[in-house]
């Protein structure tokens, strides 16, 4: 049974994450995808619930994830402190303390958050989660798709598609 969760952002333990080091440690990328993350609610770990709730801190010059959009999950960012730039389909938008950003589950919700200031950018990230269906994430700049089911994930380029009956 799911329990009530009460946590304070000021007392949270953050985990340092560097996507660059995890996925391609020997390659140079356009952005440094490094952040500190604190999980408040993780339906995948708890095996129940529908909301993934996390606090993030982006240090100056760092980005959260590559430019992407979700096809199943809706996402909300609340900027607690700091400022940065949000890349969107309509161009780059400046974001600052107090801003709430709602991203729908389609190409109109494409986003990438970058800390373009000299101070940490702290924000709350809330995502909808469906434990019983796969999540598809599209990366428009690099023509990739990620298929995710729980902790399992695979990333494919668009041009790697096969025929429906291939191998059948």
Q: Percent of residues in helical segments? A: under 10%
Highest CATH level, the class of the domain at 17-23 and 30-131: Mainly Beta
Question: What is the 3D shape?
Answer: globular
Task: Give the strand tally.
Answer: 14
End-to-end distance: 42 Å
Largest beta-sheet details:
7 strands, mixed
Under CATH, the topology of the domain at 17-23 and 30-131 can be stated as Jelly Rolls
What secondary-structure arrangement, pairings included, does this model have?
Blueprint: E1 15-18, H1 19-23, E2 32-41, H2 43-46, E3 51-58, E4 62-63, E5 69-70, E6 75-81, E7 83-88, E8 91-96, E9 100-103, E10 112-114, E11 121-128, E12 135-139, E13 144-149, E14 152-157
Keywords:
mainly beta, 168 residues, Jelly Rolls, four-stranded antiparallel β-sheet
Question: How would you describe this structure to a colleague?
Answer:
- The chain has helices at residues 19-23, 43-46, and strands at 15-18, 32-41, 51-58, 62-63, 69-70, 75-81, 83-88, 91-96, 100-103, 112-114, 121-128, 135-139, 144-149, 152-157.
- With 168 residues, the chain is mainly β.
- It has a domain at 17-23 and 30-131: Jelly Rolls (Sandwich), CATH 2.60.120.10.
- A hairpin with a 2-residue loop joins strand 13 (144-149) and strand 14.
- The longest helix is centred in the N-terminal third of the chain and has 5 residues, at 19-23.
- The protein is globular.
- The model has no long low-confidence stretch (mean pLDDT 88).
């Amino acid at each position: 049974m799911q329990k009530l969760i009460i946590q304070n952002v000021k007392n949270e333990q953050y985990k340092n994450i560097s996507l660059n080091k995890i996925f391609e440690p020997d390659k140079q990328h356009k952005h440094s995808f490094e952040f500190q993350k604190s999980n408040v609610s993780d339906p995948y770990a708890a095996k129940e619930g529908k909301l993934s709730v996390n606090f993030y801190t982006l240090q100056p010059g760092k980005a959260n994830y590559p430019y992407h959009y979700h096809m199943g999950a809706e996402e909300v960012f609340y900027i607690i402190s700091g400022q940065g730039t949000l890349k969107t389909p309509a161009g780059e938008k400046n974001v600052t303390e107090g801003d709430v950003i709602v991203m729908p589950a389609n190409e109109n919700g494409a986003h990438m958050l970058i800390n373009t200031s000299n101070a940490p950018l702290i924000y709350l990230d809330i995502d909808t989660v469906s434990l019983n269906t796969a999540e598809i994430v599209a990366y428009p700049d690099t023509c990739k798709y990620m298929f995710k089911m729980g902790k399992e994930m695979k990333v494919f380029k668009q041009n790697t598609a096969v025929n429906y009956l291939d191998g059948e």
